[in-house]
Amino acid sequence: MKVYYECGSCFLRQAHEAMDLATEDNELKIDLMKSIFDYISETYAKGVSTNRIGTDIHRIIKEKTSCNDPYHKEKIVGNKIANNLIAKVKEIIEGNGTLENYAKIAIIGNLIDSGALGLEVNFEELMLTKFSKELSVNHFEELEKALRKNSKLLYLADNAGEIVFDKLLVEKLADDYDLDITFAVKDKPILNDACIEDAIAIGLDRITNLITIGTDSVGIVYEDLSKDFIDIFHSHDLIISKGLGNYEGLTELSINDKDVFCLLCAKCTAIAKDIGVENKSMVLLKLFQKE
């Protein structure tokens, strides 16, 4: 996705929060903010990828603070939120165990995102308000057709905590379809995105082929991906992508050899505009269709 005007203030808000999480050194934070101002002034322009800028900003912060995982505590909080809600979620599933409902629950899980929504949001309260809401874009029928005609699925994960709800959907897919499922997470920490250890902690390694994308990019930044992951990416005809970062990265690609579906909550006005929905909408979007 290309930058919108409001992306600039979002980059600075995220940088501010990440620096506060990474260090208490005020002098260092002043120097860091100057570095980020310089980077944005040189890079921010029409036609530039949001993923590229966001990734570089967070790498600058990690490098200059020597803090490899600024959002470590936020990831723990995300896991706690998911665990607190799992009983409620299972109640909903018992009342409506359709695949479409599992997908909706995975989409609601995408709200566990301190990077997009900030650090002060009551995520449990926000998520509970969404269970009774309809999806603003719902291409479930197309997803179901794609699931029937493919034997392999690549599932691009997003955040820690959220993957608890992804696991429910993956288990449902494994039960209902004869799919070989590969589940991809980040190779190193970036924002509150899930890494290998987060996925192993909830047992995703026991039900999927668990891999990393080979880097710590915000979503998918194609030129940063490992060769191994690129080979896996191109060998799959069906992809389910979670979250904003992956949506932003995939829209930078031209894909006509696979079916790609994005499950997300539009948590910012830029992405809402890009999709054509209201801010905070829930979306199951067919992004690309195999020709």
Protein described:
The radius of gyration is 18 Å and the shape is globular. The chain is built from 13 helices and 7 strands. The longest helix is centred in the first third of the chain and has 24 residues. The chain is an alpha/beta fold and 291 residues long. α1 packs parallel to α3, α2 packs antiparallel against α3 and α5 packs antiparallel against α9. The chain has 2 domains: 59 residues, Helicase, Ruva Protein, domain 3 (Orthogonal Bundle), CATH 1.10.8; 214 residues, Uncharacterised protein PF01937, DUF89, domain 3 (Rossmann fold, 3-Layer(aba) Sandwich), CATH 3.40.50. The mean pLDDT is 93.
User: What is the strand arrangement across the widest sheet?
Assistant: 1-7-6-5-2-3-4
- Enter the CATH topology name of the largest domain: Rossmann fold
* Total count of strands: 7
Counting DSSP H or I runs of 4 or more residues, the number of helices is 13
Oligomeric assembly: single chain
Strand content: 5-15%
Count up the domains.
2
User: Which stretches are low in confidence, meaning pLDDT under 50 for 5 or more residues running?
Assistant: none
Taken from the alpha-carbon principal axes, the silhouette is globular
Chart the SSEs and their pairings.
Layout: H1 7-22, H2 26-43, H3 50-65, H4 72-95, H5 99-109, H6 114-117, H7 123-128, E1 137-138, H8 140-149, E2 152-156, H9 162-176, E3 180-185, H10 196-201, E4 209-212, H11 227-235, E5 238-242, H12 243-250, E6 259-265, H13 269-275, E7 282-288
Parallel strand pairs: 1-7, 2-3, 2-5, 3-4, 5-6
Antiparallel strand pairs: 6-7
Helix pairs in contact: 1-2, 1-3, 2-3, 5-9
